[in-house]
């Protein structure tokens, strides 16, 4: 399939428009390992959820210690009953794949930077059809 220069410019202009479209999407994908066994917890409103951590590795320039990867820890909360039952069966070190739409919240004005309110937070937004947890051990 070949495109003329004009067709290519039109396609790029449509792909990178600044106007909102119905099919716009912001998605976050984590592929990593469970840091510890997922924990079942309860909110103040008696809603159960599972808290777990996923470790991901990113390449970095070799440092003095020779390391070539940087580990980032992600804390994930799941409020989906079906996923929560399955999550509780996983063992630390299990390979997981988590996919969800997300929302970024900026720190609150005047909040202590050592608290969650004083830090940038990424909230995963997913329904039962959008979260995928694939595991290999």
Mean pLDDT: 76
Which spans have pLDDT < 50 for at least 5 consecutive residues?
Answer: 128-137
Question: Total helix count?
Answer: 2
Main pleated-sheet profile: 7 strands, antiparallel
The dominant shape is globular
Rg (C-alpha, Å): 20 Å
Number of strands: 7
Give your account of this protein's structure.
GO terms for molecular function: single-stranded DNA binding. InterPro entries: NA-bd_OB-fold (IPR012340), Primosome_PriB/ssb (IPR000424), ssDNA-bd (IPR011344). It comes from Mycena pura. The protein is mainly β. It has 2 helices and 7 strands, in the order H-E-E-E-E-H-E-E-E. The protein has helices at 5-15, 81-87, and strands at 27-34, 39-42, 48-59, 69-78, 95-105, 121-125, 134-136. Strands 1, 2, 3, 4, 5, 6 and 7 form a 7-stranded antiparallel β-sheet that branches. The radius of gyration is 20 Å and the shape is globular. The N and C termini lie far apart (42 Å).
Give me some keywords for this one.
137 residues, mainly beta, 7-stranded antiparallel beta sheet, 2 helices, 7 strands, 13% helix
What does the secondary structure layout of this molecule look like, with pairings?
Blueprint lengths: L4 H11 L11 E8 L4 E4 L5 E12 L9 E10 L2 H7 L7 E11 L15 E5 L8 E3 L1
Antiparallel strand pairs: 1-3, 1-5, 2-3, 3-4, 5-6, 5-7
């Amino acid at each position: 399939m070949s495109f003329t220069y004009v067709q290519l410019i039109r396609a790029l202009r449509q792909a990178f428009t600044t106007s909102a479209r119905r099919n716009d999407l912001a998605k976050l994908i984590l592929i990593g390992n469970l840091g510890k066994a997922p924990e079942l917890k309860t909110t103040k409103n008696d809603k159960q959820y599972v808290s777990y951590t996923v470790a991901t590795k990113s390449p970095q320039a070799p440092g003095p210690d020779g390391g070539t990867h940087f580990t980032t820890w992600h804390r994930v909360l799941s409020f989906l009953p079906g996923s929560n039952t399955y999550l509780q069966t996983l063992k630390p070190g299990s390979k997981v794949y988590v996919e969800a739409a997300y929302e970024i919240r900026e720190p609150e004005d005047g909040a202590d930077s050592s608290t969650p309110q004083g830090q940038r937070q990424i909230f995963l937004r997913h329904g039962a059809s959008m979260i995928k947890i694939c595991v290999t051990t």
